[in-house]
Here is the input.
Amino acid sequence: MTGLLREPSVHFLAAGLILFGLYTWSSGEPETRREDDPYRIVLSQETLISFIQGKTKNSDSSQTHRLFEQLDGDARKAWVDRYVREEVLVREARSLGLDREDSIIRRRLAQKIEFLTLGLLEEELRLDAGELDAFYQRRGEEYRIPATLTFTHVFVGNSGDSGRIKAESLIGNLNAQGISFRDSAALGDRFLYNRNYVDRTIEEVRSHFGDEFTDELEAVEPTASTWTGPHRSSHGWHVVLLTRRTTSRIPKAEEILGPLRDDAMRAKRETVLDQAIDALVTKYQIELMLRDVD
Amino acid sequence: MLTRFITRSERACEFSSKVPSALFVLLVGISMTLTVVSSDRVSAETFRELLWGDTHLHTAYSFDAFLNGNRSADPDTAYRWAKGLPVIHPYHRARVRVKDPLDFLVVADHAEFLGVIRTLYYNVHDGPGAAFAEQVRNAFDNGQGGAMFRDVLPMGVVAPGDTKDPISDEGAPNALPIAAFGEQIRRDTWAETTAAADRHNEPGKFTAMIGWEWSSLPSGANLHRVVMTPADGETARTFMPFGSDESSYPDDLWAWLDKTTQETGAEFVAIPHNSNISKGYMFGETSLNEAPYTTESARTRARWEPVIEATQYKGDSETHPELSPEDPFADFEAYTSYIQQNRQTYVANKGDYARSALRRGLEIEERVGANPFKFGMIGATDSHSGLSAYEEDNFWGKMALDSTPETKLKYGVGRGVTGWNIGAGGIAGVWADENTRESIFAAFRRREVYATTGPRMKVRFFGGWDFDKKDLGASDLAKPGYSKGVPMGGDLAGRPEAPGGLRGLLGRAAPEAPSFLVQAVKAPRGANLDRVQIIKGWIASDGLSRERVFDIAWSDDRMPGASGSLPPVGNTVDLETGRYTNDIGESELVVVWTDPDFDASQRAFYYVRVLEIPTPRHSLLDGIALGTEPPKEHPPTLQERAYTSPIWYTP
Here is the structure.
């Protein structure tokens, strides 16, 4: 079904535009329809079945075919009357030019041409390395990776002075004994959230510890084994071993090739379409009948 | 090594007063050795880590999402939002962004008509689908997408509480439109959506799990299931997602899952949702085709459905005031509109809610020896806008159409609902070994998952026979939790004859009742906690089930009243500004609780419910923004909550 998009026939384009665009019953046979005679309605079985299918909201055309076979004469006549009635109204509306000014119909026609145009431009919708690189240079900022911190902490739940004093004495012991990242797992009071924060964003750290703590940590230099503090958070005091800090950066193109290519393709599709439409516009001479602005 | 005990000295003293000092030294020695051993682990956290995600997200590929205004938010948009990147909203086109990104996401579009409406709208101008495509475009461009959606809904023939098979009713338009049309479109869309999952899956950082929704809705009884698989796209593309157009019977879905697992190696779980609007059929007394449960069929269901969605946009399914009249918090985000064309008065049934189903499961197990409703609980969004928006103040509607305060009023006209009947939330907390498809899937299998109605409350829940208050002194409660008990979703079987571990060595008496270790922590950016409760259900001596709610930990040193009930925590929400403060409530509640009414001969389940202090509902924020009274659909403030998966006791 989607293959149809990739096979936009010129025939269809012309028919869609010159004839009646929107209301062309696509499964009908144009040569028997004689739509050039506005007062002659030719109704084929296929068109009628397609009409019934639409009205009954049945998505299965073979089922509608079977149903149609079972309809008796009266029922068929009722459907024919319904079709004729609608067709007559549509033609009358067209003869009054209602299809030309209707905003919905105008939008539909415009949309159809956009899709058909894109289909015709498939060749141009390939992306070469240069274009990908140019897109990356232009839009790389959107893929920025936020800054992160890696640290562990020993928590003292008492947020008063005695807590601070306890935390201060802890720093000396931890550093004197060279307690490492993973050896500290059993120390301190229970903290609400995590003990270890590995490559967590500043924002997440902020949400767990509050502003004061996070701002202080942003100024701490990473080391393998030097505990710092005490740092105060919204929960109490912390002695911290901060081992890694990454700064915010724009990833290399190789790291984000998948999404980059998708986005570049999307952007290109829009550009190509704009250009194609601009080219169409140049075929037209535009006369402005606007009143001058003073 | 002395530093190890600096901050624990007071507790150590308390401990030592009850045990001979020589033994204490010995214990310290043992525990130090254990500590050193366990600290050799190098992972980010010593124990399982808490991951947050949404298993139920629809994109423009779902027919109803598209008809209700989501023309642009595809799986790529969905993953970008989940990962915290700014995206364009499919309806109002503003740039939007989640505040706390998710760790995992399941894009679960409806299997029926997968991608068909979207493709027809955009692409099909010729061929057998053209007339239907035209109709779709007409409906859409005239603003009649919502009406068209209504037209494809079933007529509700069975009434809430009926027990006859709702599918057998010949003549009623009981199913969604069949998918015979547009099979190639479905195939192409499935290829696209599974490829997008693989593209966005980053083991260790972000998990994109493949899934879909089986949308069985016979006679308006909602039996929907989200199906998910840890398989990769290549495997998933060897089958087509099973839809309700192939069968509306859950038993047929499970049979298909079984067959497909054997054929392709892909594993699955099915996650029922919106049992609240199933007219009693989701957790009925019998199978849907009226066959009583047997040992075999109960096991089959429990195998495929280890977890249910207990809360989401279309209401909360934990329990209902009519089913739990003694539970003052039972009336929460009730949604009472069946998904069908005609209106029917809502009636809450035992088959509609998680708590009554857990009870019914025990009753069936009593009879047939297996429990079909042995499920854990998660929350999810069921968002159709491509945006898994679970934050009350950053909520963008169920569909694309109802994403602004003004359009919420118009949403669902003719079906008796507005955008304010929709709740803003549901999210799944998962205790997983790591952030990968396999680990998350394994957590679902063992039910080590829980539901919240949006906020990221951390909840630990362990059951065992030897927990006592001293365990609360651990620097990480997971340590005593995992070493002395089972986590949420687990089983306790039979009462031990002697206590475990050192208490056993000391010759202490066997425990009379199970004890539970619970930790609840407020969401980092969220509101404080009001209380922690245990909900117990059990089989009484008459063979029927009972339920009881216990308050086990609470904030602000409140005293229970004469009736035993705890006074309300209060409410700091300013109805004029929509702000609240954390001046009431507690940031963390921890407790060891022992069942005071335990009877070792009775089957039972226990789960934890955590309540936040009141916060503003999205409808209140809309009312303030519109300069009107708060919308009447629900109270202007709500107490967000978490439900853990239960721990079961079997004699």
Remarks:
- The CA atoms of residues 558 and 567 of chain B lie 7 Å apart.
